[in-house]
Every structure is written in structure tokens, then in C-alpha cells.
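Hypothesis: this fold can be encoded by more than one sequence.
Test: take the C-alpha cells below, design a sequence, compare later.
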């Protein structure tokens, strides 16, 4: 089936039902929507448990060629729900005597688990696009910074809220933002807790485009996702792997890794199909990625 053909995928684990998300798959694009607008899409415990299950099901079973994350209501997300995660201090801080060191070791693993809930977006085989309206606050900055591309409405803003509640952001904001925008801007946002408006976010490269309305933004994002889904999936995932690798390694290491990748996964038949489809003025028909062997 051609990537351009409209179809709906069969029901999957990823499609739920879920407490915090609506998930649909069509045109080889998976659309994950935050669905708790009455609570400003705050990240309750269910959020953290559900998101990695959804993303890993899409990834491991190759159910889509691109993922879009959007939201509902006035704000994209108010970030972590402190009422659920115990805003009064960690177990390590509350423990007394030598037990606090034992508690701290456990707390470190909990923070790593939270980080992994967003790292699954960065590590997914397919690109992840974020469509952001209103406030993108605290943990939402962590989440969207783990996406491949970000788009925003004119009323959107980003806020490293953690500094305003007396803590250091710890779920991925700093390691990723420092790769996305100039360090001076990361420091200003981190130290002051000020809002970064959408237009300024575009100027410094955090978002690719700003739209007047959420509807216009989603039209553009979904069209971009469908365009990505029409390309050869192996070439797309290879591009994501190489971009991430280049981000995390030296130029020399990146050049060597792409050479190794091409040695093993250069797909002549896929290139041939691209040329043939163009000559025949039709949509190319590329094979999907295979489900991973550890997938159910």
C-alpha cells in the first residue's frame, strides 16, 4: 500500500483507552493527544505510566511512520502534578540519619525512570512532532525538548517552572535545551523562570513555525507528518539516528558512524523505487520498518 493512501490502522495497544491521552493512527501517522484540558493537562501519575507504553508500542511494532503529539484546551500542559508526586520534598530529604543516603539512591532511580518516560520520544525510530498551544510549562518543556520538531501557536509560551518552586529541573530540560537553543537563553530561562513567548522561541530556534490558531498549526503539522510518512521509512529512521548521533558525538565519530550505517543498510531497491515512482508520476511504495523482535 502506498504511503499516500488513506487508511486507518487496526486497534492496537497504543490506541488505549487511556486516562491522559487519545491515540489514533491514520495515513501512517500516529496522533497522541493530551486530553485533560480541565486540569490543564497536568502530568498525573497515569500520564507517566501511559506515555512510554504508547510510544514504545508504536515504535516496537512499527505501527506508524511518524508521531504527532498535540493537546487540548487553553494550555498544552501545566507540567508535573505536584499533588501526585509529593511537592513537599523527596523521600531522600525526609529520611533521617544514614537512611537518607539509602533513600537518595532509590530517588535517583525514580528520577531516571521519569527521564526515560520522555527519552522514549528521542529514541523512537520514527520522528516525533510536537504541536504546542498556550502554556508549555515545567515537565512539558522536558517532553517537547525530546521531540524532533516543535511548532507553536502565537499564544504559546515556554517556562522552566521548576526554579519558581524551589527546585532544579531534572527530567531532561537542560541536557536537551542546551543542544537546541543558545546557552545564554537556557541560563536566563533556568535562573529566572520567565516565560519564553512563541515568537522569541522561533527566533532562537526552539520552534520551527508559529501559527495564529491551533487549527492552522495542526493542519500544518499533520501535513508535515504525512509528508514524512511518504518517504522511505529506513531512510527516515537512518536520518534520525544520524542526527541524534551527531548531536551527542564529535564530527569525526559521526562521519565514521554514517559510513558504518551505509555499509550495512544502504537500500538500493528503495532508491530505485523512488526514481521509478517519480518517472511514473505516482506515489512510491516503500516497505515499513519491521517490528522489533522483543515486541509482543
Amino acid at each position: 500500500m502506498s504511503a499516500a493512501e488513506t487508511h486507518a490502522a487496526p486497534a492496537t495497544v497504543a490506541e488505549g483507552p487511556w486516562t491522559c491521552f487519545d491515540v489514533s493512527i491514520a495515513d501512517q501517522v500516529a496522533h497522541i493527544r493530551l486530553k485533560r484540558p480541565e486540569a490543564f493537562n497536568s502530568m498525573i501519575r497515569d500520564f507517566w505510566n501511559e506515555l512510554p507504553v504508547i510510544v514504545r508500542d508504536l515504535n516496537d511494532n512499527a505501527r506508524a511512520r511518524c508521531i504527532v503529539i498535540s493537546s487540548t484546551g487553553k494550555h498544552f500542559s501545566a507540567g508535573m502534578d505536584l499533588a501526585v508526586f509529593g511537592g513537599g520534598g523527596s523521600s531522600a530529604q525526609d529520611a533521617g540519619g544514614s537512611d537518607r543516603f539509602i533513600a537518595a539512591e532509590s530517588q535517583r532511580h525514580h528520577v531516571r525512570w521519569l527521564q526515560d518516560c520522555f527519552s522514549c520520544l528521542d529514541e523512537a525510530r520514527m520522528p516525533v512532532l510536537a504541536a504546542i498551544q498556550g502554556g508549555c510549562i515545567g515537565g512539558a518543556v522536558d517532553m517537547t525538548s525530546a521531540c524532533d520538531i516543535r511548532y507553536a501557536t502565537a499564544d504559546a509560551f515556554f517556562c522552566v517552572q521548576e526554579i519558581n518552586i524551589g527546585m532544579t529541573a531534572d527530567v531532561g530540560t537542560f541536557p536537551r535545551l542546551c543542544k537546541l537553543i543558545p546557552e545564554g537563553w537556557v541560563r536566563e530561562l533556568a535562573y529566572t523562570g520567565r516565560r519564553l513567548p512563541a515568537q522569541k522561541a522561533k527566533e532562537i530556534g526552539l520552534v520551527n513555525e508559529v501559527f495564529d490558531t491551533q487549527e492552522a498549526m495542526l493542519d500544518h503539522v499533520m501535513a508535515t507528518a504525512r509528508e514524512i510518512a511518504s518517504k522511505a521509512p529506513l531512510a527516515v529512521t537512518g536520518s534520525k539516528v544520524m542526527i541524534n548521533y551527531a548531536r551527542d558525538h564529535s564530527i569525526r565519530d559521526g562521519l565514521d558512524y554514517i559510513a558504518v550505517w551505509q555499509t550495512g543498510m544502504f537500500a538500493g531497491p528503495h532508491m530505485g523505487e523512488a526514481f521509478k515512482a517519480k518517472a511514473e508520476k505516482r506515489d512510491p511504495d516503500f516497505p515499513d520498518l519491521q517490528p522489533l523482535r522483543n515486541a509482543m
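Residues 13-229 form a domain with the 2-enoyl-CoA Hydratase; Chain A, domain 1 fold (CATH 3.90.226.10). Residues 129 and 149 are 5 Å apart (CA to CA).
Hypothesis status: open.
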